[in-house]
Design brief:
The protein is an alpha+beta fold. The chain contains 20 helices and 10 strands.
Length: 664
């Protein structure tokens, strides 16, 4: 009965989204507060209905209701509760329901928190959000309904893919979708502004908080996915330029460009066309990601394996939504005001250059992702584009963007002074260069490119601190004055500082870990040893354990560090596992991590084999991953910076500006 209620709520949400679209559009066109208000009510109703439908699906998973096809295919009675709940979005059908829930949730948020928006713009934005809801809800109801019953339900389900039964991946999709789908609000605002023909500084103020929220949540989602790939897949890495990884990375890059472009539009009234184009493109890439993951054109552990027919439907939805937005842009673009002029050396120019580089980097990722698909469709030849391509094309663009990043905030608007910026940043550059040279001289083996990466990371952090020192007059004014200035800085400035420093931390971790990681693999019997760098790892025992829904061989690895003593210094005990899931007949590796400050000792145990003397042996792979923790800490610091910026009253729908105007 609960499932039927959920199915009814899903159809009701579709009907309410249709009402939301029509009422809001007509209300905006006729300037009718009554109709626009009814549209907002429909937006709230659609979200509530979707929440009920999603709760019904979760109820079916928790209760192991195998009469529901989605539950039978993705759950099992022995599965832990967390993964039963996560199974609700662990399939194609369930993930589409989560997508729709987030989409209607953002529409409801605009309806509730957008009271300070111009009435017509708000009405048109809610109408466009409703139209997107109609497209995706219709697809979910008629092509991917998660509430479908089975006429002959099985006694047990097939369970969720064991690789997905992990805490990081359980919370990864909600964060990822909150970011992905968050760009739908930016898309809707862009369409609404184009309909009204007003893309100005006010538009930028309305768009920035939604972009910042979506970008920050997407940052957390991508980081969780990278961390899951790092310690769950057992291959020792954290990013492989997998097409599905790229699908989430492209809207992140465009979102970063949009954040900076909106600042120029807000402060100087420049780049209106480019800003609205990025607003349309951000959600366009999100929809492209949904298509790639669910169309069946990709083979990936991250992808949902579905039939091509539903992929064509998703492609059609993307074509309709993005096509409408860009067609409207093409019609309105000639009439958009070009905005204020600025000199080649200015903060505006630095941001424009930043945008060009980020857009080129996105195009590079798009080409590397789609080229194998296009090539195979044209001549049937299967080709692969992997890390070497992206390292040669994407990395230089990213280095260039990061090299100019610290200078941008120190340049004046309209016309800057390059020599003044050099005087303010020379010490940061000198310190970064010295630290890079020290790393090149001390760390073995010597690697010039990795040392350059460290210079870039230290340069980002040092340049950020130099900007903060300039704003607060640190080392140039009394401490009381510095504290007063620091306390008076807007949260948006603090957020940008934190985010840029987080990027520097990530670059340091990625450069050091990629260049100087150590790895080895050896078949060990109990009592066997592996030496890796300064560490000695001994396989002391291997036992069998019973998990909640799996059987496992667990190795006990004693790790010691050579320090001159006879036996070495004890570091930790690692317990890697090799798990077998009887329900699906799948085997996975459970990595053992031994954190050492910023480093990780990373141990994986493989399958049993015959040893040299006929004794049983297990393939043990060991890695020393230096500074790897910075790879995951850096993006989280960036997301924290976004959250701090979002707490700035000036970014919450221009509340501060309106209040100031009211007092005046």
């Amino acid at each position: 009965m609960i499932v039927e209620f959920g199915a009814f709520a899903l159809i009701l949400a579709l009907a309410l989204s249709v009402a939301q679209t029509g009422l809001s559009a007509v209300g905006g066109a006729r300037r009718s507060a009554v109709l626009a208000g009814a549209g907002r009510g429909a937006a709230l109703g659609a979200f509530v209905a979707l929440a009920c439908a999603f709760a019904a699906l979760v109820y079916a998973f928790v209760g192991s209701d195998f009469s529901v096809a989605n539950v039978a295919a993705n759950s099992h009675t022995a599965k832990p509760l967390l993964y039963k709940v996560a199974g609700a979005w662990g399939s194609h059908e369930g993930s589409m329901l989560l997508w729709c829930l987030v989409l209607t949730g953002y529409g409801a948020a605009v309806a509730v928190f957008g009271e300070r928006l111009p009435p017509r713009l708000r009405a048109y934005a809610i109408a466009m959000q409703g139209a997107l809801g109609v497209l995706f809800l219709a697809y979910t109801v008629f092509a991917s309904n998660p509430m479908t019953r089975l006429p002959d339900p099985p006694v047990e389900g097939r369970s969720l893919n064991p690789l997905l039964q992990d805490w990081a991946l359980a919370v990864h999709p909600p964060f990822l979708y909150a970011g992905y789908v968050g760009f739908s609000v930016v898309f809707s605002f862009a369409v609404a502004a184009l309909i009204e023909g007003k893309v100005d500084a006010a538009f930028a103020r309305w768009v920035r908080p939604w972009t910042l929220a979506a970008w920050s949540l997407l940052t957390v989602g991508i980081t969780l996915g990278a961390f899951w790939a790092y310690y769950e897949l057992g291959w020792g890495g954290w990013w492989f330029w997998d097409p599905v990884e790229n699908a989430s990375f492209m809207p992140w890059l465009i979102g970063a460009a949009l954040l900076h472009s909106a600042i120029v539009l807000e402060k100087r009234g420049a780049l209106p066309g480019w800003t609205v184009f990025l607003a349309l493109a951000a959600f366009g890439f999100s929809m492209l990601g949904a298509f790639l993951v669910r169309s069946g054109v990709l083979t990936s552990v991250h992808a949902f394996a579905v039939d091509p027919t539903r992929g064509v439907l998703l492609l059609s939805i993307m074509g309709i939504a993005a096509g409408f937005g860009f067609l409207l842009f093409a019609i309105r673009a000639p009439s958009l005001n070009a905005g204020g002029l600025f000199a080649p050396v200015s903060r505006e120019s630095a941001i424009v250059l930043n945008n060009i580089i980020l857009s080129a980097a996105t195009a590079t990722v798009l080409l590397g992702t789609l080229y194998p698909l296009i090539r195979e469709a044209m001549d049937g030849e299967a080709v692969s584009v992997g890390p070497p391509f992206f390292n040669l094309t994407f990395t230089p663009l990213l280095v260039l963007a990061m090299a100019i990043l610290p200078a941008g905030p120190l340049l004046a608007w309209k016309r800057g002074d390059a020599r003044l910026v050099v005087r303010r940043l020379w010490l940061a550059l000198l310190i970064a260069a010295i630290l890079g040279l020290v790393a090149y001289a001390v760390v073995t083996p010597r690697k010039a490119l990795a040392s350059l990466g460290l210079v870039i990371g230290f340069w980002l952090i040092g340049g950020t601190l130099a900007e903060l020192a300039e704003r607060t007059k640190a080392f140039r004014a009394p401490w009381a004055e510095v504290r007063r200035r620091a306390g008076g800085l807007p949260r948006g400035a603090w957020g940008a500082t934190i985010a840029h420093a987080g990027l520097g931390l990530f670059v340091l971790g990625a450069s050091f870990e990629t260049a100087w990681k150590l790895e080895t693999a050896q078949a060990l019997s109990v009592g066997g040893k592996i030496e890796l760098g300064a560490y000695v790892m001994t396989l002391t025992d291997v036992g069998t354990i019973d998990g909640p829904n799996y059987l496992a061989e667990r190795g006990i690895v004693r790790i010691e560090k050579r320090d001159g003593s006879p036996n070495g210094r004890f570091v930790c005990t690692a317990e890697p596992e090799r798990r077998f899931f009887p329900t699906g007949g799948q085997t996975t590796s459970e990595v053992a991590l031994c954190p050492r400050g910023l480093d990780d000792l990373y141990i994986v145990i493989g399958e049993r084999r015959a040893g040299p003397q006929g004794q049983p042996a297990w393939l043990v792979r060991a890695y020393v991953n230096p500074w790897v923790r910075l790879i995951f800490l850096g993006p989280l610091v960036m997301a924290l910076g976004g959250a701090v910026s979002l707490s700035d009253r000036r970014l919450r729908m221009a509340v501060g500006r309106k209040a100031k105007g009211a007092r005046a």
